[in-house]
Amino acid sequence: MFTGIVAAVGRIVSVAPGPSARRLVVETGALDVADVGIGDSVAVSGCCLTVVAIDRAATPARLAFDVSAESLARTVRLDAPGEVNLEKALRLADRLGGHLMTGHVDGVGTVASFEPARTSSPDASDAGSLRLAIDAPAGLAPFVATKGSIAVDGVSLTVNGVEGARFHVNLIPHTLAVTTLGRLAAGHHVNLEVDLIARYVARYAEATGR
Predict the structure, then answer these.
(1) Domain locations in the chain?
(2) Given this model, what pLDDT does residue 29 score?
(3) Could you point out which of 1, 3, 30, 151 has its C-alpha 20 to 30 Å from the C-alpha of 104?
(4) Which residues pair with 43 in a beta bridge?
């Protein structure tokens, strides 16, 4: 389980054929990997992956992951070098700063717009924020609710509004500085994980007819 509070921005430095579809090697940036072992889970831009090798001698340290064809088909940006958001798995003693996430990407959304948030005055409290609008796949849209939670590339965010399959969130300067989301632009694709509770409530309603 994860919380969507990104610990560091890393970088995929190589993608090659592996025992599964691909083996990724990720430079961990500022992520502390002293307590990471083989078999541990790390969220890479929202996708839960298993550590299969560690190079602590490298600067920064490097982690290797085997990624299946299924994971590659359901995600974006895990098949080529580039920056990624990193989060180690949640421990029971950790603070739950975001929301509970599984790291199982539900689908890929498309950035519709990314622009300064509208404010009532230049000195308003959210004057440095950006408004990110994303078109979700039709099958995921019913799970996205105003003031609910959603993970975008592994970042826990609050939904500010929903119009059909399109939703928007506000990104504060801190989030823009410590994640990859500030690099987004209209037309880019992002990994989405809907709220875990919403998913189970919908499944229960479907099964019981309530």
Answers:
(1) 8-88, 107-208
(2) 97
(3) 30
(4) 48, 87
pLDDT at 121 (0 to 100) = 56
State yes or no: cis peptide before 60, omega within 30 of 0.
yes
pLDDT of residue 199 exceeding 90: no
Tell the burial category of 76 from Cβ atoms under 10 Å away from its Cβ (0-12, 13-18, 19+): buried
3-state secondary structure of 114: strand
What average pLDDT does the segment 22-45 reach?
A: 97
Helix (H, G, I), strand (E, B) or coil at 177: helix
**3-state DSSP assignment of residue 134:** strand
Hey, what are 119's tokens?
């404010």
pLDDT band at 67 (very low <50, low <70, confident <90, very high): very high
Give the dihedral of Cα atoms 139, 195, 71, 89; nearest 10 deg. Answer: 180
CATH 2.40.30.20 fits 107-208, yes or no: yes
pLDDT number for residue 123: 57
- Strand 166-171 to 130-135 pairing: antiparallel
What value does the CA radius of gyration of the chain take, rounded to a whole number of Å? 17
SS percent in the chain: helix, strand, coil, step 5: 15, 40, 45
Q: What is the pLDDT of residue 101?
A: 95
> Fold identical between 8-88 and 107-208?
yes
pTM confidence score: 0.92
Q: Is the pLDDT of residue 93 over 90?
A: no
Q: For the domain 8-88, what is the CATH code? A: 2.40.30.20
